[in-house]
Amino acid sequence: MNAPLITRPSFRPEELPVPTRDLARACADYDEFGYCLIADALSPGTIAEARARLVAQADAERAKGLADLDSNGRRQRVWFLPNKGRVFRDILRQKDVNGVLAHSFGHSHYILGSFTAYIVARGVPPQSIHQDQGWFGQHTERPIVANVVWAIDDLSAENGGTVLYPRSHRVPRAMYHNDPNPDGDFINATCPKGTAIVFDGRLWHGTGENHTDAPRHALFSYFMQPYMRAQENYALGIRPEVYENLDDELRERLGFRVWLAYGRAGVPNTKHLDFVGPNPAPIGELAPDGTPRELGR
Of 48-52, 71-75, 247-251, 262-266, which gets the smallest average pLDDT? Predict the structure, then answer.
């Protein structure tokens, strides 16, 4: 899946990815340009339900003084969406998106690092251009993280659709300083609502500035290799009633499945791909006869 490295990203507008439901085409776009667009990833009903649930949740968090706000209240981030509506958990099952992610990671056991939303009004400064795995400090042959933008509004240059530097995932990190391309070879993601934009964690990008009077709503799911630490700690933060209603697919995606030696919880005889719950009753201090010892004795 790895395209050859290059020293400078460049592209012709007519060759860039367009929304598609052809998984092979999407994966080829992802390899070549560092991103792809999945057409109609969300149905009209799912878009309406997700947007309504997000707005209601955001309004409630503002009213109760719980909102994560910046830019004088013009940008709000809503964290931990798996706890905040079944519609968000169902979105994580989208088959075409999961197909691209499995292609990216080389297997289907990747985990969710965070699932959040942004509501962005006019006047919020654009995000600094960055790589989602930039903290790693060096180029990797295969991405170790990937991101998905779920458009629940139409995205355009005018409302600040995500800024992408096509093919920049193929340039070794050491060749970049603060800007991957000083000549400005970037695009704003432009797509109708319902589209999912899947992009490589090595791709240089950033959210754009909204120049319209309508707030921009979008969902962001950040995926990672199963040996990495997530942004959102689902083992501690998932609500019990939500966990009890998860199937195995979503339990694995939220990190409740052992992968090789990662994710164990002190329970004996746990094997690769076994599931562990949020309250696993691990082995504590034992006396020689097997009875529990008082903590710290």
Answer: 262-266
Q: H or E segment at 224?
A: strand 216-224
How deeply is 78 buried, as exposed, middle or buried, from its count of CB atoms within 10 A (0-12, 13-18, 19+)?
A: buried
pTM here is 0.89
Same domain for 242 and 265?
A: no
Rounded mean pLDDT, 246-258: 95
The answer on 213 and 80 residing in a single domain is: yes
Residues 58/76, Cβ–Cβ less than 8 Å: yes
Q: Helix, strand or coil for residue 36? A: strand
H or E element that contains 189: none
Answer whether residue 113 is part of any domain.
Answer: yes
What digits encode the pLDDT tens for the residues 134-160? 888 888 889 999 999 999 999 999 999
Residue 172 is assigned to a structural domain of this protein: yes
Structural domains in the chain (count): 2
Q: What is the dihedral of CA 260, 243, 46, 28, to 10 degrees?
A: 0
Q: Let me know if residue 148 belongs to a domain.
A: yes
In the chain, what are the helix, strand and coil shares in percent, each to the nearest 5?
25, 20, 55
Asked if the structure places residue 7 within a domain, the reply is no
pLDDT over 70 (residue 183) = no
Please tell me the predicted confidence (pLDDT) of residue 293. Answer: 77
Cα–Cα dist 118/161, whole Å: 12
Q: How far apart are CA 53 and CA 86, in angstroms?
A: 10
Helix (H, G, I), strand (E, B) or coil at 111: strand
